[in-house]
Structure formats: C-alpha cells, structure tokens
From TrEMBL:
Function in brief: Catalyzes the reversible interconversion of serine and glycine with tetrahydrofolate (THF) serving as the one-carbon carrier. This reaction serves as the major source of one-carbon groups required for the biosynthesis of purines, thymidylate, methionine, and other important biomolecules. Also exhibits THF-independent aldolase activity toward beta-hydroxyamino acids, producing glycine and aldehydes, via a retro-aldol mechanism. Catalyzes the reversible interconversion of alpha-methyl-L-serine to D-alanine with tetrahydrofolate (THF) serving as the one-carbon carrier. Cannot use alpha-methyl-D-serine, L-serine, D-serine or L-alanine.
Gene behind this protein: glyA
PANTHER family: SERINE HYDROXYMETHYLTRANSFERASE, SERINE HYDROXYMETHYLTRANSFERASE 1
Keywords attached to this entry: Amino-acid biosynthesis, Cytoplasm, Methyltransferase, One-carbon metabolism, Pyridoxal phosphate, Transferase
Protein name per the record: Serine hydroxymethyltransferase
Species assigned in the record: Erythrobacter longus
InterPro entries assigned to the protein according to its UniProt record, in alphabetical order: PyrdxlP-dep_Trfase, PyrdxlP-dep_Trfase_major, PyrdxlP-dep_Trfase_small, Ser_HO-MeTrfase, Ser_HO-MeTrfase-like, Ser_HO-MeTrfase_PLP_BS, SHMT-like_dom
Recorded catalytic activity of this chain's protein: (6R)-5,10-methylene-5,6,7,8-tetrahydrofolate + glycine + H2O = (6S)-5,6,7,8-tetrahydrofolate + L-serine; (6R)-5,10-methylene-5,6,7,8-tetrahydrofolate + D-alanine + H2O = 2-methylserine + (6S)-5,6,7,8-tetrahydrofolate
Binding site for (6S)-5,6,7,8-tetrahydrofolate: L133, G137, H138, L139, E257, S366, P367, F368
One Gene Ontology MF term: pyridoxal phosphate binding
Phylogenetic lineage: Bacteria, Pseudomonadati, Pseudomonadota, Alphaproteobacteria, Sphingomonadales
Length: 436
C-alpha cells in the first residue's frame, strides 16, 4: 500500500478505501433502508425480482470505469481486452439460453432495445401493430405519449370483452386492413400464453417482420415454462431483470443474418454510445445462472405459484382477469369490491405487500386510479415461497381488500396490522440476502 504523504493531506484521501457508509452516509442510509424494505416486505410487482449476490457484484464492478464503444474485436477505445471477454461470454450464453443465432447484449434498457428495433426496421411514419396498453401492452408498443406512438403509426389489437383473451381473428383482420411493416407480440399484463405460430402466419400473410418483446416471460422461456418465440419470431427483445432475474437491462436476439447489421448499427452508433460494461458483465452472470438446471425448476415453480395465488384470490372472492394465469402474473379486478387499484396498492403497502395498481381491460377509471392490481410471483419464488405460502398471500390480500371495501381508502387498521404480522413471519422464514 502506498504511504505517499501527499495522500494523507488530500481531501479525497478516502477515495481508495472508504466504503459507502463512510463516504456518503445519506446514500448509504437509503441503500440500507431499501435492503430492509426488500427483506421485510413481500414483493408482488410482476416485473421485479431479486438478483443474486454475484449479479450485484458484477454490476458494482470496475467495468463501471470502462468505455467500450463498438463490438468485441472492433472497438473505438484501447484497453478493451476484458470488456471483449465479458461481452463475448454474454452473447454466447444468451444464444445458448434462447436457442438463437445472434444476440446484441448492449441495450441499456427495455425502451432502448425496442427503440433499436424500430430504428432498424421502420422509417418514421411507418405502420406497426402492438397490443393495446389497456389490454396489457407496453408503453413502447405504440402508446401515444411514447416515441413509438409519436414518430410511427401504431395500430393496436386487444383482448375480447368476454373472455379477455387476445382475439387472433381480429389481429388477422387488423393486419390485413393496415398492412403493418412490423407486428409486435408480448406485453406487460397479459397472463395467458402467446400463440407465436398464429402471429407468424399473420405476419407472413401481410409481409410484416414479427417482433416478440418477451420481457415479462423470458425467465419462463429460458426455463421451459412458456413456449419459445423462436423459431416463429424474426426478432425477440427482452429486459433481463424480470423473470430472467439479472441486472436492469435489455437484449435483442434474432436468427437471420440479414438483421445483424441493421440491429447492431441501430444499438450502436444509432442510439447508444458506450455500453454499460458492468451491466453487460452482470448479464453474462445471469445467463450462466439461467443455463443451470435449477433455473428450470425455478421457472416452473413461478407458474405453479402464480396458479396457487390466483386460485386462492378467487376462493376469497376476488376476480382474476381472463379467469386465471398461464405465466407469472395476473390482473385482479376489484370492481365488484368497489375498491380502486390506487387504494388497493396503498392499503397493501401499509400491510407490507408491494404491488402496482393496473388498468384492467375496458377499465373506465384513469391509469392513475384504475380498477385493478397486477400481481406476480417471480420475486417471491426466488425467496423460496411455494404454493402454500402463495395461497396464504392470496388470503392476506383478500383480507386487506375487504377492509378497503368496508371502510374506503383508509382501510381497516386492525386487519392491516394483523396482516403485517403474518407477512413478517413469512419474510423471516424466507430471508433475502441473509448475510447483508
Ligand atoms: N414497467 C415494466 C412493467 O412493470 O411491466 C415494463 O417496462
């Protein structure tokens, strides 16, 4: 260790040695509280998960310091030897995991991965199709407030009013009428399996490129608990932090060489500069974890748990949109209880159950209020909950909602206190980051 006296008087003398608590107590306190929140509350947000210690370590690694614009072997900066190692490993593992020929692991997020596909495949003003946000689609699939809806011409498809399932006949009719250049399947609040072969047939009929944004279900696809979008889809995008359980980021996958140049050029230099190499390293770690046999068990357990949760909610008087779930998530319709999604999210949070309000199909309330909540099982499954625990969680949710139904948005304080006690017991029995 250097004993250079100049470092002793340097106001930044702690630079090489101080941990976060010493260097910045305010931020350290917030990090500590966030850890406690994740330990002490049950995470039911369908798009969240709990990453491994190894993924967190890679995310916080010295790759934070490295610029690596370009791709492995073709960089615009020196010193990229080890950046090339991690990016090549991430690419090879992603290809193996999803059984495809090509992968770009540089997108910084879900929005950017989808923007890259738009940049590569469409011209401004071009028509594309995606699932309506009100039926469980995503902001980047054509919402009027998103770039996808402002710069392109989105045409949406939705779910049927009775069964609340995607109406493939209507998808075909809309595609025939509007002749989109791109069709997107995949969503954020659709709890049924996607019929990728049927989408392929429609895309072929109208000459569209078929994109699957499998962000929500990619962990299930990796573990064989949901059919794969390959070989049906031309391009597949996914965030890596949802059921896939990696760092917050995105990837693009494809099979046909003809897409390689436009997609890679769209990510860099089209949209992004230097890739977040620390996150690329963490993605490689997560893909290795997902290739391990235990991940298959995890993926199937997520679905088993979601079915147990949905059944328990229904037995306790709450309606599940479309009558159940085939994946990790479900929408709970609170209309019959006269409880808004907003009030339910707040009441459940007071009882240490974290979820998000969510519009249900044909919702008459605004997106800030909504008539439903969205629930998911990936995070709870990671901490070790099984169907028994998720049945209990269904009961706890129903108790809180009944309190809200009786008393209005303030809920029933006694019920919420009692639920908090039972949540605390579940969390203590299934700890998160137990050594932290
Ligand atoms: N915001 C994410 C979700 O919660 O589904 C999707 O990007």
């Amino acid at each position: 260790m250097s004993t250079n006296p100049s470092t002793l008087t340097d106001p930044m003398s702690g630079f090489w040695h101080d941990d976060l608590a010493t260097a910045d107590p305010e931020i350290a306190a917030a990090v500590g509280k966030e850890l406690a929140r994740q330990q002490d509350k049950i995470e039911l947000i369908a798009s969240e998960n709990i990453a491994s210690k190894a993924v967190l370590e890679a995310t916080g690694s010295v790759f934070t310091n490295k610029y690596a614009e370009g791709y492995p072997g073709k960089r615009y900066y020196g010193g990229c030897d080890y950046a090339d190692v991690v990016e090549t490993l991430a690419i090879e593992r992603a290809k193996q995991l999803f059984g495809c020929n090509f992968a770009n692991v540089q997108p910084n997020s879900g929005s950017q991965m989808n923007q890259a596909v738009f940049l590569a495949m469409l011209e401004p003003g071009d028509t594309f199709m995606g699932l309506d946000l009100n039926s469980g689609g995503h902001l980047t699939h054509g919402s009027p407030v998103n770039m996808s809806g402002k710069w392109f011409n989105p045409v949406s498809y939705g779910v049927t009013e009775g069964e609340e399932l995607i109406d493939m006949d209507a998808v075909a009719a809309t595609a025939r009428e509007h002749k989109p250049k791109l069709i997107i399947c995949g969503g954020t609040a659709y709890s049924r399996q996607w019929d990728f072969a049927a989408f392929r047939a429609i895309a072929d009929e109208v000459g569209a490129v078929l994109l699957c944004d499998m962000s929500h279900i990619s962990g299930l696809v990796a573990g064989g608990a949901h059919p794969s979008p390959f070989p049906h889809c031309d391009i597949v995008t996914s965030t890596t932090h949802k059921s896939l359980r990696g760092p917050r980021s995105g990837i693009i996958l494809w099979n046909d060489e003809k897409f390689t140049k436009p997609l890679n050029m769209a990510v860099f230099p089209g949209l992004q500069g230097g890739p977040l190499m620390h996150v690329v390293a963490a993605k490689a770690v997560a893909f290795k974890e997902a290739l391990a046999p235990e991940f298959k068990t995890y993926a199937h357990r997520i679905v088993e748990n979601a079915r147990a949760l949905a059944a328990s909610l229904e037995e306790n008087g709450l309606r599940i949109v479309s009558g159940g779930t085939d994946n990790h998530s479900m929408l709970v319709d609170l209309t019959a209880k006269d409880v808004t999604g907003k009030a339910a999210e707040a009441g459940l949070d007071r009882a240490w159950l974290t979820c998000n309000k969510n519009g249900i199909p044909f919702d008459t309330r605004s997106p800030f209020v909504t008539s439903g909540i969205r629930l998911g099982t990936p995070a709870g499954t990671t901490r070790g909950f099984g169907p028994l625990e998720f049945r209990q969680i269904g009961q706890l949710i129903a108790e809180v909602v009944d309190g809200l139904s009786k008393n209005g948005p303030e809920g029933d304080a006694q019920i919420e206190e009692s639920v908090r006690g039972r949540v605390a017991k579940l969390c203590a029995d299934f700890p998160v980051y137990p050594e932290s």
